[in-house]
Amino acid sequence: MRALSFILCAVVLSNCAAVVAVPPIIQYVSTAATLVSYVATGKGTSDHVISAITEQDCALHRALFEEEICFEETQTIAMTDAAARGAE
């Protein structure tokens, strides 16, 4: 049921639910933004919206691989050698 609600959100956010009401130029811009987002981050624009709402790392395509759609965000901090030596 949870996966179905995420898929429904993705459809609504991707303008598929209101194809007639949205001008074609807006659809083209939305598609271009989604493609750029996938290339840059591996997630679509709707994935970013869902991630912001849930405050987790969400990607709807993970359901296709039978993985969890959302994970708790973990931040890793990489220290350079110079920063590590300066902290000592």
Number of domain units: 1
> What form results from the Cα inertia axes?
globular
Number of strands: 2
Low-confidence stretches: none
Helicity range: 40-55%
Q: Report the total helices.
A: 4
**Cα radius of gyration in angstroms:** 18 Å
| SSE-based structural type | mainly alpha
Order of helices and strands: HHHEEH
Describe the biggest sheet? 2 strands, antiparallel
List the defining traits of the structure above:
single chain, 88 residues, globular
Describe the model.
- With about 90 residues, the protein is mostly helical.
- It has one domain (about 1-85).
- Helix content is about 55%, strand content about 5%.
- The protein contains four helices and two strands; from the N terminus they run αααββα.
- The protein has helices at about 1-15, 25-40, 45-55, 80-85; strands at about 55-60, 70.
- It has a two-stranded antiparallel ribbon.
- Helix 1 crosses helix 3.
- The longest helix is centred in the middle third of the chain and has 18 residues, at about 25-40.
- The model has no long low-confidence stretch (mean pLDDT about 80).
Brief account:
With 88 residues, the protein is mainly alpha-helical. It is 53% helix and 5% strand.
Write the layout of secondary structure elements.
Layout: H1 2-13, H2 24-41, H3 45-54, E1 57-58, E2 70-71, H4 81-87
Antiparallel strand pairs: 1-2
Helix pairs in contact: 1-3
